[in-house]
Amino acid sequence: MLQRSNAIRNGVILFIILGVYFAILDALGLADNIFLRLGNYIFIFLIINNSLKSAVKNGESYLNKLAIGVVTVFTAMTLGTISLYIYFQIFEPDLDRYISSVVKANSYGGLCVALYIQSLASSFILVFIMCQLYKNKKPNEVQ
After folding, report:
1. What is the pLDDT of residue 24?
2. Is the CB of residue 23 less than 8 Å from the CB of residue 73?
3. Residue 107 DSSP code
4. What is the pTM of this model?
5. What's the rounded Cα separation, in Å, for the pair 141 and 37?
6. Which of 21, 25, 55, 75 could form an S-S bond across to 60 if both were Cys, CB 3.0 to 4.6 Å?
7. Are 119 and 83 in contact (CB under 8 A)?
8. Is the dihedral of CA 7, 12, 16, 18 positive or negative?
9. In the prediction, which pLDDT does 101 show?
10. In Å, how far from its chain's centre is CA 128?
């Protein structure tokens, strides 16, 4: 099921895309702009869409499609959180630069955990919504 839909591969691709996106934002000094940070949902949407299209083409059931979407975002968000923590440990940037009114934390680990929970929750909601879009699609209806 996961190999045919490329869920883990798509999760790694999503991790790379989001990593590059946030690295560019950080390099430009725009990491604190909430609207640009919300732009990552475009990438998440596109990758989940790709995974679910593959699942529909393979004739997967609704629960399998849901699992494929969850594995995709879980892979990306877990790798992203681990990478963020490593980045914080190596470069030790000012914590206040990364804390916003949305996420409060007093340590690098706390910030990583808060962002991990926030990203997983919002991504799971997006997966569920997209699964509803593909619920009754047949393999011949998806390109």
Report:
1. 93
2. no
3. S
4. 0.90
5. 33
6. 55
7. no
8. positive
9. 58
10. 14
Write the CB contacts of 130 (distance below 8 Å, at least 6 apart in sequence).
Answer: 45, 48, 49, 52, 69
Interatomic CA distance for residues 89 and 80, integer angstroms = 14
User: In whole angstroms, what is the distance from residue 89 CA to residue 91 CA?
Assistant: 6
Rounded CA-CA distance 109/56 in Å is 38
Residues 64 and 1: beta-carbon distance below 8 Å: yes
Q: Is 92 left (phi over 0), alpha (psi -120 to 50) or beta?
A: left
End-to-end CA distance of the chain: 19
Phi, psi at 122, each rounded to 5°? -70, -35
Q: What residue segments make up the domains of the chain, in order of their start?
A: 2-137
CA angle (85, 86, 89) in 5-degree steps: 90
- Give the Cα separation of 92 and 110 in Å (integer): 14
Alpha carbon distance 70, 128 (integer Å): 9
Give the 3-state secondary structure of residue 43.
helix
Identify the segments of the chain with pLDDT beneath 50: none
d(CA 54, CA 52): 5
Position 2 scores a pLDDT of: 64
